[in-house]
Amino acid sequence: MTDAKILVVGDAPLVMGFHLAGLEHAVQVDEAEFQKEFEAALGKPEYGIIITNERFLKNIDWRLRKKLDSIAYPVIIPMPDYSGTSTEGDEIRSLIKRALGFDLGSKK
Predict the structure, then answer these.
(1) Beta-bridge mates of residue 28
(2) Which residue segment(s) compose the domain that 50 sits in?
(3) Cβ(16)–Cβ(48) under 8 Å?
(4) How would you classify the pairing of strands 26-28 and 47-53?
């Protein structure tokens, strides 16, 4: 898993922002095609982190949401839209805890 890549699946502003930051792997989608592309990305083991639009993610089918709740890899990072307001995304610390099985920030 040391060669895991980061993938962005999202709308134009999200994809463009990460391209400008130097990220190579990105799929630009609209809300109608998001779930299909997102599920395809989940099936590719080379991606260890998938960054996506929080508002797209909150509208996925309940079966896919249940699957996401039960997997630890890849780590899914929902990003708020350009307004900067987050509605339901997990904090990165809790995502890492779920992926690793323990809390890196714990003082125990």
Answers:
(1) 10
(2) 5-100
(3) no
(4) unpaired
Q: Which residue is it, tokens 């997990």?
A: 90
For residue 102 the two structure tokens come to 């323990």
Nearest in space to 78 (alpha carbons), one of 43, 38, 40: 38
Residue 47 sits at the vertex; the CA angle it makes with 46 and 51, to the nearest 5 degrees, is 170
More confident residue, 85 or 98: 98
Residue 23 lies in a domain: yes
CATH number of the structural domain spanning residue 94: 3.40.50.10580
Instruction: Kindly state whether residue 108 falls inside one of the protein's structural domains.
Output: no
> Would you state the pLDDT for residue 70?
84
Give the model confidence (pLDDT) of 32-91 as tens digits. Answer: 999 999 999 999 999 999 999 988 888 888 898 888 888 888 989 888 876 555 555 455
Q: How many domains in the chain?
A: 1
For 81-106, what is the mean pLDDT? 58
d(CA 104, CA 3): 21
pLDDT for residue 89: 46
